[in-house]
Structure formats: structure tokens, C-alpha cells
Design a protein that fits this description.
Rossmann fold, five-stranded mixed beta sheet
């Protein structure tokens, strides 16, 4: 369970900076206690961690840490000033009662392409076995560390051989991202809602909002461009290029920089339109609701 401890010892790390996704908060104190028992000093990061692209090496180094423990994410390739140990974390959940109850929604498709996020790789394997017993042909998207595992910003993986795509997990982020890139039917076996959701309606809803916001940007006189200084989300060069383009169209443009972006931090500013240039997927769910 705590295999990562040996990796940290090999690094001769003394003080560990712990990062984790919000959904794992209830387990972090247990992990922290085990690290302390093993002789490490620990610092728990209480700022949100939005994926493997969000490596807080600057903060860790400033707090005297010599290694980062990044829980629940796979290596994204972000270069860090100090070593990062990535820890797989699988959530133990049984998707089969949902699949049995909702199977008729995908029953007509013969070849089904499965995909999921790291935490639900084990659940996806259960779905694969169950569907194969129903004589379905199962294929996978091109995976990250594991077969079928995807990242939110790496979603150009629609499989042409599939009759439909099925996501196993929670939320809209991953299935909506794929639905926007393919004409294939995209479904989500949602482990929180306990049902299979067809994402065609979500896709059309998103596209209508996107067109509306694009029209608002054309009409806007004062525009804010939102950027972030996180390692994997820093798009400042693109932001300044867009700023020049918008200014050439007669608009007043301001660049706003954040660590963690929230609508509350923008209150008090007066903009006709905002352009978010962080994670290329952030507007899909967080700011188009």
C-alpha cells in the first residue's frame, strides 16, 4: 500500500510535500502519519491539485521540502526543480450493478471503446469482463500508464473502430471532452449518479453556449484574459498574442494572472467578456455552466 516510501528513501528525501486531488482528502492524514512513522518530515498542501500538470515545486522548495509526493496522478512530463514521486490510487467501487440496470442504453452497440481516469482503472476492468460475457467486442483508447487511462487535456483518442465510447467514472469533464471531438455516441457510466448517461445532449448544450459566448466576445469592448502560472497551464505567450489580436480589433484588453482561478476573485473588475487561457479544457465544465 505504501510502496512509494521506498522510492522516497532512495531519493534520500527528508521533508515531503504532499499533493492530492480533492476526492482523496479523507485518506491524506493516514498517509501523512505513515510517512512520519517512517522518519519523514511532511507538509500537506491544502491548495487544490488539478492533475499531474499541477506540480507545486516552487512552493515545496520554499518550504524546505526536497521531494513531492503526487497522489492519484500519473507522470505528465512536467519538469520539476525537485524530485516528484507519483502514486497510483485506485478507488474500490463496483460498477456492475449500474451496468446491469442500465445495460439497455448501450446494448445495441457491438464494439465498445472503454476509457477512464486513473482512479477508476480497476472499475473499468470489471466493466470489460462483464461486457465481454455479453458478447461485446471491447477495445480501448490509447492509454497513458494503463490501457484505457486518459488525461482530461489529452482527449484526441476517438477510436474509429468503435460503435460507441463508454467512460467509467464521475463528472462530465472526460466524457464531454471526447464527445466534442467525435461523431461517435459517447456514454458515461456515472458512478455517482448510478446511471449511464448519453452525452449527446450535453454536447449540444455546450456548443450552443460556446457560440453564444463567442458572439459576446465579438461585441465586447473590454476583455479580460485569464492566465495561470501553474507549470502545465502556463499559456502566457498565447495570451499576449491574443491580446494583440483583440487590440487590433479595437478592444481594451487586460491580462489577469492567478494560481487557482475562481469567479469570486474577478468580482469588482468590469469586463464585457473573459477569455480563459489555462488548461485548454477548463472552460468546458467550470466556466460554461
Amino acid at each position: 500500500m505504501f510502496d512509494f516510501i521506498e522510492e522516497l528513501k532512495k531519493l534520500n528525501a527528508k521533508r515531503i510535500f504532499i499533493q492530492y486531488p480533492e476526492g482523496l482528502k479523507l485518506r491524506i492524514q493516514e498517509i501523512d502519519q505513515e510517512l512520519q512513522k517512517q522518519g519523514f518530515e511532511t507538509v500537506i498542501c491544502c491548495e487544490p491539485t488539478f492533475g499531474a500538470c499541477d506540480v507545486r515545486d516552487f512552493e515545496a522548495e520554499r518550504l524546505g521540502c526536497d521531494a513531492i509526493l503526487h497522489i492519484g496522478h500519473s507522470d505528465f512530463g512536467v519538469k520539476s526543480k525537485i524530485p516528484v514521486v507519483y502514486v497510483d490510487y485506485f478507488i474500490d467501487v463496483d460498477p456492475l450493478p449500474i451496468l446491469e440496470k442500465e445495460f439497455e442504453k448501450i446494448e445495441k452497440y457491438k464494439t465498445i471503446c472503454l476509457f477512464t481516469s486513473l482512479q477508476y482503472v480497476s472499475a473499468m476492468k470489471k466493466v470489460k469482463e462483464w461486457l465481454e460475457n455479453k458478447n461485446k467486442k471491447i477495445i480501448f483508447v490509447k492509454g497513458e500508464k494503463y490501457e484505457g487511462q486518459i488525461l482530461g487535456c489529452r482527449i484526441d483518442f476517438a477510436n474509429k473502430a468503435a460503435d460507441c465510447m463508454l467512460y467509467i467514472g464521475t463528472g462530465k469533464f472526460h466524457p464531454l471532452g471526447l464527445a466534442l471531438l467525435t461523431e461517435k455516441p459517447v456514454f458515461s457510466l456515472d458512478l455517482e449518479q448510478k446511471k449511464i448517461v448519453n452525452f449527446e445532449k450535453e454536447k449540444m448544450k455546450y456548443l450552443k453556449k460556446k457560440i453564444w459566448y463567442e458572439e459576446k466576445l465579438k461585441e465586447a469592448k473590454t476583455v479580460g484574459i485569464v492566465v495561470c502560472w501553474k507549470h502545465g497551464q502556463n499559456r502566457i505567450k498565447e495570451a499576449f498574442a491574443l491580446k494583440r489580436q483583440l487590440e487590433n480589433n479595437g478592444k481594451k484588453v487586460h491580462i489577469l494572472a492567478f494560481d487557482t482561478v475562481s469567479k469570486e476573485k474577478i468580482l469588482g473588475f468590469k469586463f464585457d467578456s473573459l477569455v480563459y487561457m489555462l488548461c485548454p479544457r477548463i472552460t468546458d465544465e467550470d466556466f460554461l455552466e
